[in-house]
């Protein structure tokens, strides 16, 4: 009788993959957004149905089914060129510049000194330069590289990842294939850390993973994988390995630094020990060491476009466009300070009351809370939240990257507040109901996983 639940779940995941395939091949692009709303909604419904079907599958068959479905969902992301982001074109360019001995922190893509590196994939000729992912450089060339007039923004281990792909080519297909490898590897890491639990499917089958990590090939997937491994090692007392992985994740994309308090869960609830310094010290050491080769080559230029990006994206005073929920309650000038205060309170709570056996729970609270506060417009920032939700099994936090996706497509202050306000409501309501309906004894919390 166990074959029927497995078959039903397999059919549901196959339907999800088929819908994702249509989404990515016929469902619109960033230049033609209206079709994406319907397709993304259909993907979300089939994702939910697949998760419900998985609940009936016997535990002994869960891991294989989750992994197989994860491979299928990731493979679907390879069916088309990037549909909603052009970041992958910059990735390959940065790798190409490094392979020729240059530094992407030192010269911009439109720099005449790098004209010899231009290729038709990133600098198309004769197509009118009218596609959604094309723009003109200062010298009139057409390029698919976004912000061609500025230096790269990516931290050093992201740059090392781009260089590592160079032997396989520097086109977007290579970046997508690398994203698929990362997506499946993260599924494997989640299954290992959770002991093959069903909750790993929250990442493995998530439509956002196929879109953001594979099709759009965002390097955030590498940060998510390293964070999963780091928290898994920290939970098992391998503090040095855990700290190193978290430091490396932060050197890929700065956002995983928010997961570090999770690895220190409960540290303020007892007497301090020398071992408590291992995770933060190792993380800081790996982060600093990763910058040294690029610092030697580029000096202060290793900051890249980060300051300009923060200003452009509305995170600085005088140009504030983020912190939408806080700006409903406070004047703009107070919103960033209030956000910092709330985030500090979340960090303190994790350090004081967090469960060291479940460091991902504190990491999810801080990371998801930070995204709710800042309300970013890029949904792939939520890949880290998806991975942490899969570690902890709290599916309600998937509302946070969903809010980012809606804001990315629709834009506007009102949409920002509505989307992230709805996400906050989902997180609060489900969390309260979960705590009331399924109380967990302390012993069970400490021994699971």
TrEMBL record:
Stretches that traverse the bilayer: 37-55, 62-80, 174-193, 277-297, 334-351, 363-391, 418-436
GO cellular component entries: plasma membrane
Topology of the protein relative to the lipid bilayer: Multi-pass membrane protein
Keywords on record: Cell membrane, Membrane, Transferase, Transmembrane, Transmembrane helix
Principal subcellular localization: membrane
Pfam families cross-referenced by the UniProt entry: GT87
One GO MF term attached to the UniProt entry: hexosyltransferase activity
Keyword hit for Transmembrane: yes
PROSITE patterns registered for this protein in UniProt: PROKAR_LIPOPROTEIN (PS51257)
Subcellular location: Cell membrane
Family: Belongs to the glycosyltransferase 87 family.
Protein name as annotated: DUF2029 domain-containing protein
């Amino acid at each position: 009788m166990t074959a029927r639940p497995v078959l039903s779940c397999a059919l549901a995941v196959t339907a999800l993959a088929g819908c994702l395939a249509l989404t990515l091949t016929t469902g619109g692009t960033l230049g033609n957004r209206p079709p994406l709303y319907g397709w993304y909604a259909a993907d979300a419904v089939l994702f939910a149905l697949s998760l419900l079907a998985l609940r009936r599958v016997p535990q002994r068959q869960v891991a294989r089914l989750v992994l197989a479905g994860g491979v299928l969902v990731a493979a679907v992301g390879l069916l088309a060129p990037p549909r909603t982001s052009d970041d992958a074109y910059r990735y390959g360019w940065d790798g190409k510049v490094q392979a020729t001995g240059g530094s992407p922190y030192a010269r911009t893509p439109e720099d005449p000194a790098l004209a010899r590196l231009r290729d038709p994939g990133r600098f198309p000729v004769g197509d009118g330069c009218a596609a959604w992912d094309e723009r003109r450089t200062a010298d009139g060339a057409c390029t698919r590289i976004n912000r061609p007039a500025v230096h790269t923004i990516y931290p050093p281990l992201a740059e090392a990842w781009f260089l590592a792909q160079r032997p396989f080519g520097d086109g977007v297909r290579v970046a997508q294939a690398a994203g698929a490898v990362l997506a499946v590897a993260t599924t494997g890491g989640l299954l290992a850390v959770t002991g093959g639990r069903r909750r790993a499917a929250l990442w493995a089958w998530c439509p956002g993973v196929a879109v953001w990590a594979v099709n759009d090939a965002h390097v955030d997937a590498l940060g998510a994988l390293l964070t999963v491994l780091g928290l898994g090692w920290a939970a098992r007392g391998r503090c040095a390995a855990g700290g190193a992985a978290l430091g490396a994740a932060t050197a890929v994309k700065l956002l995983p630094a928010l997961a570090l308090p999770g690895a220190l869960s409960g540290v303020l609830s007892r007497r301090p020990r020398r071992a408590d310094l291992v995770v933060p010290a190792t993380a800081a050491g790996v982060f600093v060491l990763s910058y040294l080769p690029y610092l030697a080559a580029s000096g202060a230029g290793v900051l890249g476009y980060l300051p300009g990006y923060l200003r452009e994206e509305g995170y600085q005073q005088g140009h504030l466009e983020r912190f939408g929920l806080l700006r409903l309650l406070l004047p703009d000038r107070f919103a960033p300070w209030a956000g910092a205060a709330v985030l500090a309170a979340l960090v303190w709570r994790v350090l004081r009351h967090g469960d060291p056996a479940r460091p991902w729970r504190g990491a999810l609270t801080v990371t998801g809370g930070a995204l709710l506060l800042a309300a970013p417009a890029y949904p792939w920032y939520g890949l880290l939240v998806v991975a942490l939700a899969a570690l902890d099994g709290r599916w309600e936090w998937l509302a946070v990257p969903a809010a980012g996706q809606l804001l990315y497509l629709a834009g506007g202050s009102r949409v920002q507040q509505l989307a992230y306000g709805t996400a906050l409501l989902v997180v609060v309501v489900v969390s309260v109901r979960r705590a009331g309906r399924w109380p967990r004894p302390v012993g069970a919390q400490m021994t699971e996983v």
